[in-house]
Give the backbone structure.
Amino acid sequence: MKYHIQTLGCQMNVADSQRLASALEGMGYQAAHPDEADTAEVQIINTCVVRQQAEDKAWGRLQLLKKQKERNPNLVIGLMGCLVGVKDPLRLRKKAPYVDVFIPPSEVEPLTAFLQDRTTQADAVTEEVAKRARLNQYMDEMIPQPERDLVLPVHERGDLISAHVPVVYGCSHACTFCIIPFRRGVERSRPVGEIVSDVRALARQGVKEITLLGQIVDRYGKDISDGPNLAELLRVVHRVAEEEDVYRIRFLTSHPNYMTQKLLETVAELPRIMPHIEVPIQAGDDTVLANMKRGYTRQQYRDLVAQIRATIPGVAIHTDIIVGFPGETEAQFMETYHVLETLKLDKAHLAMYSPRPGTVSARRMEDDVPKREKKRRHQMLERVQGQVQAEINAQYLGQTVQVLVEDTHKGKWRGRTPQNKLVFFEDESRNWKGQLVDVEVTWTGPYSMQARLPNTEDSRAAHSLDTIPLVTMQPVDAERRD
Ligand code: SF4
């Protein structure tokens, strides 16, 4: 029997799909070849609702599966993730009666139980999930408890170089625009033992880079009394990485309010923790930030960027920005523009505001920035950020950087630097996949770099984790506007 999982959205969904695939393969199912996805008897869509576009995509795919099911009533359709949510997973049953099983984010049991006994247990299990949600008991009980080591799906075993490990599920912050807390529930940290067991299991299946995931990853442990914090968790995972030959560890996403000096010092100290921080600002204007309920000001964010750069040599900082939040004026938008222009961050994930039903901003604020204006603002930020990235990357020209090679793309090896910058190089002499390689940068652009192997017998640099080039952008005239 074949299965196919379509994954939409963030890395948390990628990790959830991996765990679902692992459970299915444990039951004897096999992944359908991507070219023959429609032949799978079990079809899962792991959904995202952060933006309307992602939600529309899920419904579009469901319509196709519905038609498929009309032709083949034995087809099993599973709907997973944020569209389903944790609070009332069965609420979409009326709208999509052709869906066999509704699977809350980070859960595998509803599907595995359904497949074990399609006719009787399915309803019982889904009803049970709903009942638990109604009783508001899901917070502890719905954290998946792995009964066995995490086993990657067959096509990724020995092949996947970089994998994600969730460490905190859900979020309790409630930014006014965000649907995540409604769909993924309150913040729940995973026990250290579970995380370590996942890291070891992934390492033994060939994974060389682990990214620890959380909606606010630096709040790790705050929901457990006397629990470890993220800095302590990183120390434990670092030790495991040394034992298991995992070369690199990353973590995301951080929130400016929870980033501590201790955490930054830990990143600076431990060689396998990469100098790469993802910390969204979302907007550069204090009124917009307050309306978003982000909990910090532009100046506090600027200070944090300075603190991160002062503590972690050669660090890359990524941010997220939403343009066209309700009420955002041209002047307020320009504050965001100038933040990007002057702070010179390594990457900015840009999004146009789209109201998500049920959120505070959708209920109480008018979506009053016209779509065309949102697009214009988005394009302006894209342009300025492109220039900043071109400028940052140009500093690598002629330098030797260490890349972890992930795969090939159009005949070239593709890898990433410690700062997560994409590098391509050509070499047919050997298989570099999963290796740390020192390469010399020969061309740079805003989104990637080209490189070549230096003229040495063997440029392989596995385990020499101390060659991070010190390219750090300083903010230009950072104080000018604040
Ligand atoms: S911190 Fe804010 S934006 Fe991030 S998941 Fe939580 S509520 Fe959403």
In short: Residues 2-141 form a domain with the Rossmann fold fold (CATH 3.40.50.12160).
